Amino acid sequence: MHIIENGNVAAALGVKLCRANVIAAYPITPQTPLTEKLSEYVEAGEMKAEYIHVESEHSALAVCIAASSAGARAFTATSANGLLYMHEQVQWAAGARLPIVMCVVNRAVGAPWNVWNDQQDSISQRDTGWIQMYCSDHQQIIDSVIKAYWLAEKVSIPIMVCYDGYILSHTYMPFAVPDQEKVDAFLPPFKPDYALNTEEPANLNTVTLPDVRMDVRGELAHGYMEIRYLLQEKLRASLTVASEAEKRFADIFGRGGDPYIEPYLCADAQYIAVGLGSLTYQLRVSVDALRKEGIRVGVMGVRFYRPFPDAAIANALKGKKGVIVFEKALSYGYEGALVSDLKSALYEHLAGTGALPVVQNFILGIGGRDIRTEDLTQTLRAATKSRVAKEPVWMGLKL
Amino acid sequence: MGTRNYRRKTSHSEHGPGDGGKTGSWRVERPVLNKSLCIPCKRNAEACFICWLFCPEIVISRTIPPQIDLEYCKGCGICAEECPTKAITMVDEAKFAQDDKDKE
Asked: Quick check: A44 pLDDT over 90?
């Protein structure tokens, strides 16, 4: 069934189709309509889930952590400062290896207070041990939520499904809503290795010593470092599992492609624009315009940001003349987080091969500053002619 | 042998004595039971067992007399505090260390 709805409804429908058991969320713009829609589903009896009202985002994720520990499929969603307020529990959920799915409806963070879109919120949570997926349209939002539950439960790692506030969350576009039977075939009920129960009581993630130790059964149990290494190891392995998820999804729903990157006119391109989320679809318009001028340019969306698909990205950019990375966030004090990761991948995979492209970084749309397509086209055109600057360039800055 | 094949992914502690390892030498005071004051001992019957119930380390047995597993006892003194007949007293570990020296 195809419908025309907004991005928040696409996310809510995905959560409903996944039969989440527990939802706990605190409303924050621009995520609010998503949680309102879910509470409507639960209230109307369309969704058999516990909707737990909480007083903060920190509590929302704490509820999801408890629910997931007890074997429930848990969902939460937030934006901006709500995500930052959650931060302690964000780290906890990953360390505890709980397959929670959370939508992050991307919004600028304070100070100063701002409710418009950029991606500083989720980018600032890059190093928490969560998987991060970025969506470019409503179809990707609903599909990503469904894929995310399968992947999260397969690898026991929580996932953030990130999509741009307003640009996706509040705009309407057509998308296909999968059939419940197909989603059930894709996503079996959640069966964790261990779920809290009174027959087999346990304390989870209490003080864990720096070194390994004997447990009460006399078996050698992990120390803190082993547990943290296993998270890292599984995150890296998740790249392969994501590919499996994508294939399974394509077999059942007939949609999908590369789980890591989404290239547009990249095959013969000499220059490639790179970004996260809806911006990469807007860049396609600029690419089309520049192609008419004879400039061989393409655009590549990064769909999977953590774990970082370094090999796929390096392979896609190998031998290109230039790579132009557009970001709605940055690692303050240096440059865009994505451009740093991308350069690291290029160095690792291409150093010494002579196939290293020149990399440029543009920061744009911070705090919802309007991104005009003609400005993107102009910047991209200039960047293909020469290296604009060594430092990241803030596009459209009026200082 | 490392922990690669350990059956849990994370930190998972189960009910039982010494999940955090043996106490070692840092206990300051040791609980000592005076059987002539202990209710189950005096009556030679299942009774009271307040010490067993309250011990947070689960190192006191529900037996006559109650046995205290000093390998894992942390010396918190809750048993002594809770015992209705004051049958348990906390004794400075230094005294036992001195006794051990005297034996040598």
From this structure: yes
Taking the CA atoms of A382, A383, A387 and A392 in sequence, report the sign of the dihedral they define: positive
- Preceding amide of A307 cis, omega within 30: yes
Quick one: how far is CA A329 from the chain centroid? Answer: 14
Q: How far apart are CA A146 and CA A15, in angstroms?
A: 7
Measured in angstroms, the CA of B81 and the nearest CA of chain A are apart by 26
Looking at residue A259, what is its pLDDT? 94
Q: Answer for the pair A339, A361: CB distance below 8 angstroms, yes or no.
A: yes
pTM: 0.89
Phi-psi region for residue B96, left (φ > 0), alpha (ψ -120 to 50) or beta?
Answer: alpha
Task: Give A257 or A94, the one with higher predicted confidence.
Answer: A94
Classified as helix, coil or strand, A304 is strand
Q: Looking at the complex, does the CB of residue B24 fall below 8 Å from at least one CB of chain A?
A: no
Distance (Å, whole) CA A349 – CA A185: 38
Q: Residue A94 has which token pair?
A: 């990953």
What is the sign, positive or negative, of the torsion defined by CA atoms of A160, A162, A165, A168? negative
Residue in A with minimal Cα distance to B15: A202
Q: Is the pLDDT of residue A291 over 80?
A: yes
Query: In this predicted complex, what is the ipTM?
Result: 0.80
Angstrom distances, CA of residue A50 to CA of A27, A73, A150, B93: 17, 11, 21, 53
Largest CA distance in chain A: 72
Identify the CA nearest to A170 among candidates A326, A344, A37.
A37
* Beta-bridge partners for A74: A22
Q: Which residues of A touch B11 (CB under 8 A)?
A: 204-206, 208, 221-222, 224, 227
Structure tokens at A253: 């729903």
Residues A31, A164 contacting (CB under 8 angstroms): no
Question: CA–CA separation, A122 vs A102, rounded Å?
Answer: 11
Secondary structure of A147-180 as H, E, C letters: HHHHHHHHHCCCEEEEEECCCCCCCEEEEECCCH
Q: Digits of tens for pLDDT over chain B (104 positions)? A: 799 999 999 999 887 766 666 787 889 999 999 999 999 999 999 999 999 999 998 899 999 999 999 999 999 999 999 999 999 999 999 999 887 777 77
Any chain A CB within 8 A of the CB of B13? Answer: yes
Residue A363: Cβ-neighbour burial (10 angstroms; 0-12, 13-18, 19+) = buried
**Residues 6 or more apart from B26 whose CB is under 8 A from it?**
none
CB atoms within 10 A of CB A192: 17
Residues 15-44 of A with CB under 8 A from B: none
Q: What's the DSSP call for residue B31?
A: E
